[in-house]
Write a structure and sequence with these properties.
Elements: H1 4-14, H2 18-28, H3 41-48, H4 55-83
């Protein structure tokens, strides 16, 4: 289960529109709800906020977080390199 401290850290980088990326991550791994449907936005949000526990969704959230951190660092490095000339 995602803790309150983890939620705070995750939200700092995830900002908005993270749910569609989490859904894409789950879809790429063919992970669905018990009924075979994609998870709802509400359920994914509840997992992020620590109200529900679902390891597959948690893994997808952490993957999206990791990708966003990587992209942020890549952008900052490019910006720094550009501005140092």
């Amino acid at each position: 289960m995602i803790t309150k401290e983890e939620t705070k850290t995750l939200k700092e980088r995830l900002k908005t529109n993270y749910i569609k990326d989490v859904l894409k991550e789950l879809e790429s791994k063919q992970i669905t709800s018990k009924s075979g449907e994609p998870f709802s936005d509400t359920y994914i949000s509840a997992v992020l906020n620590g109200r529900k526990e679902n390891l597959d969704i948690e893994d997808a959230i952490f993957m999206v977080y990791q990708k966003r951190v990587y992209e942020f660092n890549k952008r900052e490095k490019a910006k720094s390199k550009l501005l140092s000339k």
